[in-house]
From TrEMBL:
Cofactor descriptive note: Binds 1 [4Fe-4S] cluster per subunit.
Natural source organism: Magnetospirillum gryphiswaldense (strain DSM 6361 / JCM 21280 / NBRC 15271 / MSR-1)
Cofactor(s) of this protein: [4Fe-4S] cluster
Protein name, UniProt field: Adenosine 5'-phosphosulfate reductase
Keywords, sorted A to Z: Cytoplasm, Iron, Iron-sulfur, Metal-binding, Oxidoreductase
Top EC group: oxidoreductase
Molecular function as annotated in GO: 4 iron, 4 sulfur cluster binding; adenylyl-sulfate reductase (thioredoxin) activity; metal ion binding; phosphoadenylyl-sulfate reductase (thioredoxin) activity
Phylogenetic classification of the source organism: Bacteria, Pseudomonadati, Pseudomonadota, Alphaproteobacteria, Rhodospirillales
Amino acid sequence: MSHVDYSAAYGHLSGKDLIEVIAHQVFPGKVAVTSSFGAESAVLLDLVAQVDPSIPVVFLDTGELFDETLEYRYRLERQLGLTNVVVVRPASEDLTEAEDLWRTDHDRCCYLRKVLPLARAVEGYAGLIDGRKQAHGFDRQALSTVQVSGEVVKISPLANWSEDDVQKAFVSRGLPTHPLVEQGYRSIGCWPCTRPTKPGESARAGRWAGSAKTECGIHTLVLGSDGAGI
């Protein structure tokens, strides 16, 4: 990767404008989106579809997702016209080890079900677009729209969007909500480690509740030029 200061060059952009520049000018043909098809995913995916519906959207099917998430993925794919959703699953040997590991070792379970599969799937991409936001709290409060992670540039077009901005986008664009949102889920991952949030809690408080864990590891992974964690 060159020594371009990507944050200085493009960090002032956000939303659709940032996606357009990254996908068409900075990393044409070498950018992908990572999406959980969770509670707020429709907003980012809608912006991506407006720019180019053929941009690869990497979807991690961990084997422990809610049925509602799998259904929602198909609904968004059809409604937004996404033409390149790439479903990534853990290797069979990793699934065997993971089994019920979520009961005893959250970090190892996430590593086997999410971090390893994603590292393999994004090999060769120079830029990865995600839906992280400062409004999620915890380690994301200081999140910038453009970050360099090893040999990969991570782009968070919605980093500075508020919860109100997100909800307005749902309404103005006529986007469907994830079925579990009505039940109080504001951040949705694997079913064993996700619960609805309580009044006054941050959006991600329902993830790994009762533990100090706030990230699965896919966004904190440093990627080398070969896509492997370093």
